[in-house]
């Protein structure tokens, strides 16, 4: 009987299916179905951080533009007794840089599924969250100290009104926004050498134009000239006579609910970021545990 020669497989006679078995076994070493990074969490984290990244870049750019526009001028800080120097534009630079950096880590960490970047983002947001709570508690406990600091700041804007453009802008906005003039009354402006009634300047016995009541939407930059020589009743027809310190306190009391809601919304948003970041970290580490 003639036997037909069967071709011998080069791998010792093993069939193709037998060769593929180790490959299938290696694939089973990966994460089982259902153990994966949630796409919903990943892209929610990514797109939310993209929005904040753009916001941070805008704030940072505004701060840098402000510093360049006024050649890096510096004004005295609110905390005068601590001898701290602070330029308002530097605050924009700091806040913008912080938001920009954190959003960058959150955005790239989510996109690349990088646990190191996500942990840095999560722990940084947790730290900021705790600092906000601490500041809120301290502000509530030391209300009188906060009021004293605000009063010192208002006084500082009076003394250095013409010495710095930032101080002048803040004082004018405060007068017009709160409809006030001086710390407790318009006569407080006599503490400024340019407005005192004993001074040689053309603006003696005057107040800044921003203390004036608006007339038909027309700004008269000389409307405050000589008003400190007038009686109280005559002053009330031309300028605001309420002190800015009292108006500032009233504004906080009136808007405390809005401030609380805004602060609560910010904290809720931070909690959402923390939960998303921690969720992604847990998903990534669960997948890695099967590698």
3D structure, described in words:
This protein has a domain at 39-145 and 252-288. Helices cover 61% and strands 0% of the residues. It is mainly α and 291 residues long. The protein is built from 9 helices and no strands. Helix 5 (143-159) crosses helix 8. It is elongated, with a radius of gyration of 33 Å.
Regarding quaternary structure, how should these chains be classified? single chain
Morphology call? elongated
| Total E-strand runs | 0
Task: Estimate percent helicity.
Answer: 55-70%
Return the average pLDDT rounded to an integer: 79
The total count of helices amounts to: 9
Distance between the termini: 56 Å
Largest β-sheet summary: none
Key structural traits:
0% strand, 291 residues, 9 helices
Entry summary:
The chain has 291 residues and is mainly alpha-helical.
How is the topology of this model organized?
Layout: H1 16-27, H2 39-69, H3 88-112, H4 115-141, H5 143-159, H6 165-178, H7 232-238, H8 244-254, H9 256-288
Helix pairs in contact: 2-3, 2-9, 3-4, 4-5, 4-9, 5-6, 5-8
């Amino acid at each position: 009987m003639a036997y037909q020669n069967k071709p011998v497989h080069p791998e010792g006679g093993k069939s193709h299916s037998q060769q593929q078995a180790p490959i299938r076994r290696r694939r089973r070493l990966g994460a089982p179905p259902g153990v994966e990074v949630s796409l919903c969490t990943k892209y929610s984290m990514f797109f939310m951080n993209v929005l904040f990244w753009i916001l941070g870049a805008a704030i940072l750019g505004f701060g840098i533009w402000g510093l360049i526009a006024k050649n890096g001028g510096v004004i005295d800080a609110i905390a005068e007794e601590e001898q701290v120097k602070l330029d308002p534009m530097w605050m924009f630079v700091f806040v913008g840089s912080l938001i920009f950096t954190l959003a960058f880590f959150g955005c790239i960490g989510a996109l690349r599924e990088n646990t190191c970047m996500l942990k840095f983002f999560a722990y940084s947001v947790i730290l900021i969250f705790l600092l906000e709570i601490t500041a809120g508690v301290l502000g509530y406990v030391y209300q009188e100290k906060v009021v004293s600091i605000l009063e010192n700041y208002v006084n500082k804007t009076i003394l250095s009104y013409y010495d710095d453009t930032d101080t002048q802008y803040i004082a004018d906005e405060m007068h017009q926004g709160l409809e006030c003039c001086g710390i407790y009354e318009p006569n407080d402006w006599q503490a400024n050498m340019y407005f005192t009634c004993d001074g040689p300047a053309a603006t003696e016995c005057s107040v800044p134009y921003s203390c004036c009541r608006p007339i038909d939407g027309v700004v008269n930059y000389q409307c405050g000239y000589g008003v400190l020589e007038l009686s109280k009743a005559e002053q009330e027809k031309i300028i605001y006579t309420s002190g800015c310190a009292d108006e500032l306190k009233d504004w906080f009391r009136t808007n405390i609910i809005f401030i609380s809601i805004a602060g609560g919304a910010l904290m809720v948003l931070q909690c959402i970021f923390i939960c998303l970041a921690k969720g992604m970290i847990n998903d990534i580490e669960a997948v890695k545990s099967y590698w």
